[in-house]
Amino acid sequence: MITVKNEEQIGCMRRAGHLLWEVLQKLKEAAQPGVTTKELDQLAESLIRQRNAIPSFLGYEGFPASLCTSPDDMVVHGIPSDGTILREGMILSLDCGLILDGWQADSALTVGIGNISDEARKLIAVTERCFFEGARHAVAGNTLGDIGQAIQSCAEANGYGVVRDLTGHGIGREMHEDPAVYNFGRTGKGQRLCAGMTIAIEPMISSGTWRVEEDDDGWGIRTLDGSLCSHYEHTLAVYPDRLPELMTLPGFNWADYDSEEETV
Ligand code: MG
Ligand code: MG
Questions:
Q1: Of the residues 22, 91, 225, 262, which has the maximum number of CB atoms within 10 A of its CB?
Q2: Which of the ligands is closest to the CA of residue 95?
Q3: Contact 184, 152 (CB under 8 A)
Q4: Domain that holds residue 70
Q5: What is the per-residue pLDDT for 125?
Q6: How far is the CA of 259 from the centre of ligand 1 (A)?
Q7: Does residue 29 fall inside a structural domain?
Q8: 146: exposed, middle or buried (C-beta count within 10 Å: 0-12, 13-18, 19+)?
């Protein structure tokens, strides 16, 4: 069931989203060579609790941390550990969520550790572009297929694969609500968007195959061919008459976004 939020409820989600943006900015700064992913998780939890919010990932279906840390060929759901020490040249996806006053926010980004290759830099840039190309179709009256098609064509135009096994989602009181928001699809197909829907769009883009496999720990998901993967996610609100509000990216203005801009 899709839940539509009123203005007041969207206001609550906006406050949660802005806090999550602050947390992710601090995590991004902290992701440096020599730091362990466990240390990033501890920082995430303390930053969230300092803001009187609750880490939504901790204990979710048994997940043991407040942050997902997914290096290099890992797509999502990496468990932070003392044994994973960040090294120059790695890329690391940071996926985090929090609950403020009963309302959820969910956002992810991929960061380069120190200096990274041009190939890795391009993958991160194209993944972010895929998000924005998809998100600008999140207007009432459009369909989920419009979003998916835009993401897929942006990725494939750059020779990249769109991971199919994982999707974005509705979000609100629950982290994962209906509908599933696919990162591929066909224009005009699928669920029609309406005003007051709040969704997380989260392309997971691989420099090689889109096929993935699960790690032995039952959580981490990796690309089947070991190719690099990047992830970018925001929680957004759908309106009838304007482009969506990116609730986990305060200060963003669509007027500053150039769809034709080169990615690198
Ligand atoms: Mg997420
Ligand atoms: Mg999500």
A1: 91
A2: 1
A3: yes
A4: 7-249
A5: 98
A6: 24
A7: yes
A8: buried
- Ligand closest to 70 (CA) is 1
Ligand 1 center from residue 108 Cα (angstroms): 5
**Residue 85 domain-assigned (yes or no):** yes
CATH number at residue 104: 3.90.230.10
d(CA 136, CA 258): 11
Closest ligand to Cα 57: 1
Give the ligand with the smallest distance to the CA of 107. 1
Per-residue model confidence as pLDDT tens digits over 212-257: 999 999 999 999 999 999 999 999 999 999 999 999 999 999 999 9
**Count of structural domains, the chain:** 1
Among the bound ligands, the one closest to the CA of 168: 2
Residue 21 maps to a domain: yes
Residue 254 included in any domain: no
**22-79 pLDDT, tens digit each:** 999 999 999 999 999 999 999 999 999 999 999 999 999 999 999 999 999 999 999 9
Burial of 138 (0-12, 13-18, 19+ CB in 10 A): buried
User: Ligand 2 mean position to 170 CA, how many Å?
Assistant: 9
Examine the pLDDT at 96 and tell me if it is beyond 70: yes
Residue 215: CB partners within 8 Å, gap ≥ 6? 74, 221, 222
